């Protein structure tokens, strides 16, 4: 197979792997059945989701070390096995606490191990179009709920909630392990035919290992901006449906439809912002994202009460920008620190996602409990967007050679 078509095939495989890994985004479908089965409240039914995201993010730095030693195929296989095992074992859980450990910790670690592998493969095979290739690869994660939520909902109705964990686990384990077989890096120094880096790209190219990276100020700027971008986006994912019914005053059916639509925005943000990062550099793309986050939050805060149109516009932008950050950050990691140690480096950068996830979930929940409405979260997000914009403007600069 020609190298050009092979590398695009690897992007397609990475996208499908991420659809499998991203089934966590459909977890809300499990919550009501679990609340009824275990006689628990909404806070407890959300525990597996929050722990899963935290374990996912914490496993990423270790996964980078594994990938450096084992390569992307074996590392993805291990991740796929743990993902499937987490779902399968969860089917035997007698209560939500055990479910949280089995599904949240084991499944989350599995996703954390596998997630970075297709991204690293895309980054190395596409020195010319890294943002687009990475964006399409991670796009599967954002698109996953559209594919997996209807399947999970159907299975719950047919075989029950706990058997659904079992069936999904078996399917996910088999799919991820099989799809990992073609994953490999190009030979050292490979580049696309008739492509050469521009003089600016060549002069800017650096290859830093993790210890060298953490000494650079642009690493901390990237980590902080990534955290803020994820916090705003993951908060939006968590409250999209209840905000729609309680603030925008739409029906639960329309709110469910809206969440499916927003998932498309989440997917689209990845290749769109990835391509923009290729063309206009991480700093300018990050600034654009924070302007959009600020505008969307302002729209929802000042005009969202009872306004269906502004609800769709505001949340659509926030989901688009979350998808965007999941392409901006890995592309910026490649641009700032090179591809030689990419897996280890992006694993550390990705811990920002975990901090943003927990912060976003706790922020929206706390504001709702204190004020009785989700509206109060948006002025905080607006302030964070301003901070992110300033940090991006000052700190997201190319790495200086020592």
TrEMBL record:
One of its GO terms (molecular function) is transmembrane transporter activity. Residues 7-400 form the Major facilitator superfamily (MFS) profile domain. The keyword Transmembrane helix applies. PROSITE patterns: MFS. Keywords: Membrane, Transmembrane, Transmembrane helix. It holds the Pfam family MFS_1. The chain crosses the membrane at residues 7-27, 47-66, 78-96, 102-123, 130-152, 164-183, 219-242, 254-273, 285-303, 309-328, 348-367, 373-396. PANTHER family: MFS DOMAIN-CONTAINING PROTEIN, MONOCARBOXYLATE TRANSPORTER. This is OFA family MFS transporter.
């Amino acid at each position: 197979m020609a190298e050009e078509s092979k590398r695009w095939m690897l992007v397609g495989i990475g996208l499908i792997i991420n659809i499998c890994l991203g089934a966590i985004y459909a977890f809300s479908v499990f919550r009501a059945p679990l609340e009824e089965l275990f006689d628990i409240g909404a806070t407890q039914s959300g525990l597996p989701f929050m722990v899963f995201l935290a374990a996912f993010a914490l496993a990423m730095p270790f996964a980078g070390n594994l990938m450096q030693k084992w390569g992307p195929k074996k590392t993805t296989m291990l991740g796929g096995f743990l993902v499937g095992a987490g779902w399968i074992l969860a089917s035997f859980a007698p209560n939500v606490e055990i479910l949280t450990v089995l599904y949240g910790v084991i499944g989350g670690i599995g996703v954390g191990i596998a997630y970075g592998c297709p991204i690293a493969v895309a980054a190395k095979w596409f020195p010319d179009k890294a943002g687009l290739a990475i964006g399409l690869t991670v796009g599967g994660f954002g698109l996953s709920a559209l594919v997996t939520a209807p399947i999970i909902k159907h299975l719950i109705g047919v075989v029950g909630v706990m058997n659904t964990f079992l069936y999904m686990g078996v399917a996910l384990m088999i799919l991820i392990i099989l799809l990992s077989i073609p994953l490999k890096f190009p030979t050292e120094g490979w580049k696309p035919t008739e492509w050469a880096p521009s003089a600016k790209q060549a002069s800017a190219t650096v290859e830093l290992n993790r210890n060298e990276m953490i000494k650079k100020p642009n690493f901390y700027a990237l980590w902080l901006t990534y955290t803020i971008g994820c916090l705003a986006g993951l908060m939006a994912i968590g409250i999209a449906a209840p905000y729609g019914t309680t603030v925008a005053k739409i029906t639960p059916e329309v709110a469910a439809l809206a969440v499916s639509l927003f998932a498309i925005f989440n997917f689209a943000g990845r290749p769109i912002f990835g391509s923009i990062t290729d063309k206009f550099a991480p700093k300018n793309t990050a600034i654009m994202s924070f302007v959009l986050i600020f505008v969307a939050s302002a729209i929802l805060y000042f005009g969202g009460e009872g306004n269906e149109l502004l609800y769709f516009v505001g949340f659509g932008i926030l989901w688009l920008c979350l998808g965007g950050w999941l392409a901006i950050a890995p592309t910026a990691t490649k641009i700032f620190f090179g591809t030689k140690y990419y897996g280890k480096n992006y694993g550390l950068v990705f811990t920002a996602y975990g901090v943003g996830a927990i912060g976003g979930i706790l922020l929206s929940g706390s504001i709702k409990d204190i004020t009785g409405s989700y509206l109060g979260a948006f002025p905080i997000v607006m302030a964070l967007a301003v901070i992110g914009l300033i940090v991006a403007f000052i700190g997201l600069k190319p790495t200086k050679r020592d």
